[in-house]
DNA sequence: TGTTTGTTACGAAACGTTTCGTAACGACGC
DNA sequence: GCGTCGTTACGAAACGTTTCGTAACAAACA
């Protein structure tokens, strides 16, 4: 029962979720202004999207005042993990290794980021001694 | 002009592409049998999908004999890279680091795979000495 | 030849996503 | 009070995806 009934946000919905994750609870106007920085989008389009997301339970809203305030109902990390699972299954035959190789391969990554990944690998090693610990020696 | 006019396969289309990538050029019947291992899907559904993919240029087909043979027109790696770019933009604010952390974090990964990733990191380091090469010693 | 079997072609329904036009409504300034 | 402005609500169109029923057709076979 670890997997809950997580909604599957569409691409447009993800765009909005990113605004809410990064900027916190926001009005329709604010979200629309943020989206408008990237592309043309009508105000009522953003409004409708948020209303649909509200119906789906993807966002909650505070409608105590006239201009409603929307808030992400999905946690960023959980959602990202779900999306990776989807992509893993849809295009990588379930191999996380291949995905990571692709993500790092044809992409310029800074030394700092590479180091952070190394640290992550080390911490996984320590937490999870799957095979003979001798091998590390 | 590095970016071509790459089609964006849907989820169902990716399912079929995976079959063609792994099994090579295949008939509708074969693809449908493969898909049927995972879920219920009608023969004409698979056929129609392949026909649409053909129109879109996602697959090519040899119709010299009565039963046509379909072949992936997209390379696996290119497509995977494109999908990662999409996901990166759609949900990770463009940070490949965050994506990799997510992919490795809440997932059990074998020591062997971790080592392969380490090798990949090392090879990236060698190819791309952004900072002091001394650090590697 | 006539029947069965497996194939392609085609149309359409069902559904979800995205977009926007229009209307109603409250707040605010004049 | 009245008009303006920003907001929400609602309906619908346009579009893409997915699914499947039906028909046409060719090959194999009895």
Automatic annotation (TrEMBL), chains A, B:
It comes from Solirubrum puertoriconensis. GO terms for molecular function: DNA binding. This is Transcriptional regulator. The keyword Cell cycle does not apply. Belongs to the BlaI transcriptional regulatory family. It holds the Pfam family Penicillinase_R. Keywords: DNA-binding, Transcription, Transcription regulation. It comes from the Bacteria. InterPro entries: BlaI_family, WH-like_DNA-bd_sf, WH_DNA-bd_sf. GO terms for biological process: negative regulation of DNA-templated transcription.
């Amino acid at each position: 029962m670890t997997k809950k009934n997580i909604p599957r946000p569409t691409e447009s919905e993800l765009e909005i979720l990113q605004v809410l994750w990064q900027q916190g609870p926001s009005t329709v106007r604010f979200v629309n202004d943020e989206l408008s920085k990237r592309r043309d989008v009508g105000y009522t389009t953003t409004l409708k999207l948020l209303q649909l997301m509200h119906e789906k339970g993807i966002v909650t809203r505070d409608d105590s005042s006239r201009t409603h305030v929307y808030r992400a109902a999905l946690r960023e990390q959980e959602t990202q993990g779900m999306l990776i699972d989807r992509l893993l299954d849809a295009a990588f035959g379930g191999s996380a290794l291949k995905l990571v190789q692709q993500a790092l391969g044809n992409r310029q990554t800074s030394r700092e980021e590479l180091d952070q990944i190394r640290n992550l690998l080390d911490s996984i090693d320590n937490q999870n001694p799957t095979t003979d610990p001798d091998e590390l020696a």
